[in-house]
Amino acid sequence: MTIFALSTGPGISGVAVIRISGPETAKVLKKLTKLSLPKPRVATLRKISKINNSELIDEGIILWFPGPESYTGEDMAEIQVHGSKAVVDALHSSLSSIQNCRLAEPGEFTKLAFQNGKINLLKAESIADLISSETEIQRQQAIKIMNGKSADQFNSLREKLLKILSHVEAKIDFPEEDLPNNILDEIKNSTDEVKIKIKKILNDQKVGERIREGFKIAILGPTNAGKSSLMNHLSNRDVAIVSEIAGTTRDVIETHLNIDGYPVVISDTAGIRDSKDEIEKKGIKLSLKTAEEADLKLVVIDAKRLDFTDVLKDLLDENAILVVNKSDLLEKNISPEIKKTNHVLISIKENENIDELILKIKNNLKNKFITSDDILITRERHRQHLQQSLDHLNNFNQKKEIEDFDKAAEDLRLATRHLGMIVGKVDVEEILGSIFNDFCIGK
């Protein structure tokens, strides 16, 4: 089957790029241009006409990439035309009329590239991350993964396990013969080395996922403390409804921000108080759950009501900033108890000390986003496969100690398989759908 799609953004633009890939690509180009194929990888100006007649659609650039020397590994072409909706629709309509030619699904071009061995699974994911990156640090991380350093490290660990497995299988195949002591020592040393490396990779404070998904900041506090106003002020737009009525916010409201190049997801939550309203109680429960998952908590209280509940006090841990709002109405000094906390006095209404709060947030971000070349995990699936690989290696060591080599070998195979699934070295059909559905159509 030959697929096609618009690879540039929809809407009016100077240029639109339509990508085609599959066995019918050469036939498609000949039908559209009524001429022979252009030279491979040479931009060629051609008139592009409708398939069923000679009516001109547009004049544009044709790029022809015969397989396997193409992005997908198949015959492929890119057609650059003027970026009007009418031109793109006419071209899509003509392509749809060709037998065995259909519109591509999200990420299908990159999926073909993976299936045809042009890229590994990590690179496919990093391409999606690069496309969706909104901040500089996200772009840098995606480029690092694309360059293959992560894949090289995972492949290296997998190859070490395969070598260990060959020694274990030799012991199984020749049980009557004693393996040299240096071989048994090598099995132990190599296994320990791989385990130490995996533990080190897992002990990354989830920085890679934070960069990719965004640093989570939860705004919490009692009702009418100014949480929604703070959310709107930081976002520089009306994200949340602000009202004098206590308990206006009942659900968790999220918005994505770029703070000094760091990706941030800020959540405004329901006011925490004793309530008999069932809907509000559910909102408060969601607030506390959001607090547990947040990387940083902004606990907002009203300067006129400085006494706060034990629930709010429990939120003031090392990953929290106490924000005392409405400081312009403060009639007395704050208590020594509050002074001991990591706090800041602000007035959203008077725009006072907001810069000081933002500086505190930035400093927290910088500490959390300390990047290193050792950061290899960017998605939860990478972490799960590494943890499962480590669990099987622990099981392998236990069985090996009692010389149950048959069962130990199976744990080693499973540990190797989980490492392979990170880069796509084994059958990973069950996870391909979820990965490539995150792509835009045309990539």
Protein architecture, described:
- With 443 residues, the protein is of the alpha/beta class.
- It folds into three domains: 2-104, 2-Layer Sandwich (Gyrase A, domain 2); 125-204 and 376-436, Four Helix Bundle (Hemerythrin (Met), subunit A) (Up-down Bundle), CATH 1.20.120; 211-368, P-loop containing nucleotide triphosphate hydrolases (Rossmann fold, 3-Layer(aba) Sandwich).
- The chain is 46% helix and 17% strand.
- It contains 16 helices and twelve strands.
- The strands form two sheets. Strands 3-4-5-2-1-6 form a six-stranded mixed β-sheet. A six-stranded mixed β-sheet has the order 8-9-7-10-11-12, with helices on both faces.
- A hairpin with a 2-residue loop joins strand 8 and strand 9 (262-268).
- Helix 4 (121-132) packs antiparallel against helix 5 (136-146) and helix 14 (380-401) runs antiparallel to helix 15 (405-423).
In short:
With 443 residues, the chain is an alpha/beta fold.
Helix and strand arrangement:
Blueprint: E1 2-6, E2 13-21, H1 25-33, E3 44-49, E4 56-65, E5 76-83, H2 85-96, E6 101-103, H3 108-115, H4 121-132, H5 136-146, H6 149-173, H7 181-202, H8 207-213, E7 215-220, H9 227-235, E8 253-259, E9 262-268, H10 278-293, E10 296-302, H11 310-315, E11 320-325, H12 336-339, E12 343-345, H13 354-368, H14 380-401, H15 405-423, H16 429-436
Parallel strand pairs: 1-6, 7-9, 7-10, 10-11, 11-12
Antiparallel strand pairs: 1-2, 2-5, 3-4, 4-5, 8-9
